[in-house]
DNA sequence: GACGATGTAAAATGATCGTTTTACACTCCA
DNA sequence: TGGAGTGTAAAACGATCATTTTACATCGTC
């Protein structure tokens, strides 16, 4: 695996497991088995490493939710949680840890959330045959967000509950 | 205001605004305008200070959701966000920052979430006249959790969307 | 066969971390 | 009146922080 890829995927794992601030660069160099000189040549700084981790995760997440139904959307989330673990949304966690004061990180978070909302809008619009208002998309977004959070302490079952709740809302909107 | 109260409320504000790990004890002593000697006499350690902040917040939050309808529950959340700001659930943020590895903190988080779920179960059971299954309570919990997260980037409007979604689900269950 | 790129190991940078210590001032109650 | 309790200011603790530097090894390529 190429050096920068290894660095970013190692960083993503450590940030997700232990938190962004709590993960020191020493631990990172050790886990990625590279010198700090190499790390800084590729990463630039810790802040830009976090931003790189987030934009990489954004792409991977986008691919994982390339679906065209609300049911499949929550199915994709369940699959994501199975392979990536459930420790809450890494974007919101990055936002919280930095207080939203780091522009590069805040931008990555808002970009990600905007694209998630857009994706859900498209899916909902298809499923309701254009009968939906924009509130319905927000409600599905909230169920998605809530399932991500609740899965931390209630497990994957929470995602299935959100899935059926979403289909009830969609059904209701179709009438 | 009594010293320990001032310490804990100052700590809660800084932790919420800047994150737990990123908030140093120096900044805390300065903000609470007390010496580090006094701070450590009352707090013991940073970890136990975080635990104290969380248990204090838990009590205050519990009081704020002393309601008996799902509609009022989301109304209470909207009010909470207005007065306390919306930076996501402080409990889940504490859990994420510590990786769940600090027993006192993890316990405070799970206790809080278990009590939230219980409260929702009671409300839902009343509103559905006992007709509800346990999945419905989980769905309302997910909407509550999702509204808390989504409000970070979509504002208080998200809470009202969750509110109407919850009432639709309740209505459906009553049939 | 010299060169630029890419890597390593390891020490040093100055700042900041959480925590403890030393030394001193005030108040309240016996 | 004197001692326990509660506070302050400020320095010191060793550890760790993100980052840079020095010195050296290994490449493929012209």
From TrEMBL, chains A, B:
Keywords: DNA-binding, Transcription, Transcription regulation. It comes from the Bacteria. SUPFAM superfamilies: Homeodomain-like (SSF46689), Tetracyclin repressor-like, C-terminal domain (SSF48498). GO terms for molecular function: DNA binding. Residues 24-43 bind DNA. Residues 1-61 form the HTH tetR-type domain. PROSITE patterns: HTH_TETR_2. This is Helix-turn-helix transcriptional regulator. It comes from Vreelandella sedimenti.
